[in-house]
Hints:
The structure is a single chain. By secondary structure, the protein is of the alpha/beta class. The protein has helices at 14-25, 40-50, 58-63, 74-89, 106-113, 145-156, 169-178, 180-197, 202-222, 227-234, 240-250, 253-275; strands spanning 6-9, 33-36, 53-55, 67-70, 96-99, 119-124, 133-139, 159-163. Helix content is 56%, strand content 13%. Strand 7, helix 6 (145-156) and strand 8 (159-163) form a beta-alpha-beta unit. The chain is elongated and about 70 Å long.
Amino acid sequence: MSAAKMVFIGGAGNMAGAVIGGLVSSGYPADKIVATGRNEQKLAEFADRTGVQVSTDNAAAVAEADVLVLSVKPQMMKELCESIAPVIKVSDHKLLVITLAAGIPLAAYQRWLGAGVPIVRAMPNTPALVGTGVTGLYAGEGVDEAQRQIAEQMAEAVGIAVWVEGESGIDQVIAVSGSGPAYYFQFMESMIDAAEKAGMPRADAERLTLQTALGAAKLAVASDVDVAQLKRNVMSPNGTTERAIHRFQSGGLPELVEQAMRDCAARAAEMARELDQ
Length: 277
C-alpha cells in the first residue's frame, strides 16, 4: 500500500517541522509530504532542509491530501478551518484531519469543517523537538483503524504515543506530559539557584543539574522497577539523600504536585470551553 499524502498546514513551524523531520528520518517518503505556510523564503529553506514539497496555497494542498495536519495557533484555527471547509466538502475521498492545537474540542472542528469529517486530536509536548516527545491521541467518530495507525505513526516519529478513550483524557495528558516539561524545568531552575546560593559557580550548577536530570530519566526508562524503588535505591538509612527527601515530603511536595496537575487539567478544560465559543 502506498504512503498517504500528508499535508501540514503551518508545516514550517517548530512543532510541525519537528514531526515532518521525524517522519522523513524514519523513512516516510518526503515526496508524500506537503508543508504550507505564508513565508515563501522560510518554506524554500524548509524544503531544502527536509526534501518535502511546500506551498502557499492551503486550498490546493488540501484538495490533494489523504491526511491533513493542522498546526496553527488555536486563535487562528476557526478562520483556517472555515477557509478550507469548502475544499473538504467536495473531496472525493475520505480525509483524515489531525489537529496539533491545544484546547479546541472536536465539536468545534465539526462545526467549522463540517459534520462527519474523521478527526484525531493530538497533544504533543515540546521534547518532540528533539525526538523524545509524548503525544496524547484521541480519535473522534468515524476514524478507522488504518487512520489510527497513520496518526500513531506520525506521533511516534518524534517519541511515544498514548491513546485516550475519552476526549477529557486529553486534559490529563496536558497535565502530565503537555505541561510536564515546565515542571521539570522549574525543579531544575530551583536546584541551580540553590547550588549557586551555596557557593557553586552557576555554570557548574547548570551542568550538574541538567546531566543529573538526564541521567535519572534515562535510568528510569531503562529500569524494570518503578521510580519509587529507584528513589529508595539512592537513599541509605539516615543518609544525605534521605534527609533531602524527608524535607521534600514534610514540605508537602507530593500534595503540591497533585494540586498543580489538577489546576493544569482544569485550565485545559476551561480553555476548551473558551475556544469552543
